[in-house]
Design goal:
Elements: H1 2-35, H2 37-65, H3 73-92, H4 94-122, H5 131-149, H6 153-178
Helix pairs in contact: 1-6, 2-3, 2-4, 2-6, 3-4, 4-5, 4-6
Length: about 190
């Protein structure tokens, strides 16, 4: 029985250690990113550019290797070349990438706003608080409008700010989860 109690207490310690350590790291990184949103946006756009380049290389190599199994390998190779070219261009000109990411983010908020509004309208007879979805859609439309109205400046900081906010809330969530770790001793 004492051996089982040790195992449970050990798992409890590991649970708390994991959540606390990761929560602290994410919160600190989020705060650092919050104070450097331009650098964070630049780093995110650079990573995406590099991944686009690598993905394009993979597509080209895979298309050449598997050309006998594909109906249009030339088209796949052309797409790979376009991906590699876009990756190179966006790596050389990261501000263009940051601008494109911001436009995509604004489009995302517009589409999510439409989706939330549609959900609210279609479920107003089923849900008591259906209007909350309508409020969320208005907020999403406002976020898109703010991003688009403040271009090109918003392109420099928007992605970095959103990433930093995500990291901060993820870290705080992990820290709060550490208090929920429990151990159960058999027979109690």
């Amino acid at each position: 029985m004492k051996g089982l109690i040790k195992v449970y207490k050990s798992n409890y310690s590991k649970c708390i250690s994991f959540f606390v350590a990761e929560g602290i790291i994410f919160t600190i990184l989020g705060l650092l990113m919050l104070f450097m949103p331009m650098i964070t946006s630049y780093a995110a756009s650079l990573i995406i550019s590099i991944l686009l380049f690598i993905g394009g290389l993979y597509k080209i190599i895979n298309s050449i290797i598997n050309r006998n199994f594909m109906s249009k390998p030339v088209l796949s190779i052309i797409i790979g070349i376009l991906m590699v070219s876009a990756g190179i261009i966006l790596t050389i000109h990261p501000v263009i990438n940051m601008f494109l990411l911001t436009i995509i983010l604004a489009a995302y908020f517009i589409l999510e706003g439409i989706n939330s509004l549609n959900f609210a309208i279609h479920n107003r007879n089923l849900l008591t608080y259906w209007w909350l979805a309508a409020v969320v859609s208005l907020i999403q439309f406002m976020l898109a409008a703010i991003i688009l109205a403040s271009l090109p400046f918003s392109a420099l900081i928007t992605v970095g700010l959103l990433l930093s906010i995500d990291f901060i809330f993820s870290g705080l969530t992990l820290l709060s989860l550490s208090s929920t770790c429990k151990y159960v001793v058999p027979g109690d």
